[in-house]
Specification:
Order of helices and strands: HHHHHHH
Radius of gyration: 19 Å
Largest sheet: none
Number of helices: 7
Strand content: under 5%
Helix content: 55-70%
Oligomer: single chain
Distance between the termini: 36 Å
């Protein structure tokens, strides 16, 4: 039996199409409660502090990485890849489900139909990497940098938001 909440939020979740129809309202309702939002905020603050303490947000560390002068960032990125791979294997092996009982399914990569196989991945990664190298931060740590007093990163956040807005405008014209 599906429980439907009468407290329908006044906005639509972007990823709601990935949730089975019977679970959409309960998922939206539970994830937008005050305590859940507070938990998200506290996790974000803790992650930001971890970024600052581990020097992941350090412009100098990022420049060292792109100049191949230090393994610090490669070690952090590599450990994140290992943790993600192990987590995905555990999710698959133990059939882990969401809080609402939905199966977690990882779809295989779609290489696209362009003449350059996988262009969507290597081209997107190249654009991301160039932006990362130019600004000295990837999107997540930009917020931590603002929180640690580097107000100039607001320009990077605005530029990143503008980029996602432009992508949303032209997405229907791009090959997917």
């Amino acid at each position: 039996m599906t429980v439907v909440s009468e407290n329908v939020p006044d906005f639509e979740c972007v990823d709601v199409e990935q949730v089975p129809p019977a679970q959409q309202l309960p998922a939206l309702d539970s994830s937008n409660r005050g305590l859940a939002l507070l938990a998200y905020l506290l996790i974000g603050v803790a992650l930001g502090m971890l970024f600052v303490l581990s020097e992941v947000v350090s412009w100098y560390r990022i420049q060292e990485m792109f100049r191949f002068q230090s393994v610090h960032m490669y070690g952090i990125i590599g450990s994140a890849v290992v943790v993600a791979a192990a987590s995905l294997q555990l999710i698959k092996r133990f059939d882990v489900r969401t809080l609402h009982g939905e199966r977690i399914v990882v779809s295989p990569k779609q290489w696209g139909s362009s003449s350059l196989r996988g262009a969507r991945y290597w081209l997107g990664g190249t654009i991301f990497g160039v932006g990362w190298g130019l600004i000295g931060a990837c999107p997540g740590p930009m917020f931590a940098l603002v929180g640690s007093g580097m107000g100039v990163m607001l320009a990077g956040i605005v530029a990143a938001m503008a980029g996602t807005w432009v992508y949303a405008l032209v997405q229907h014209r791009l090959p997917h």
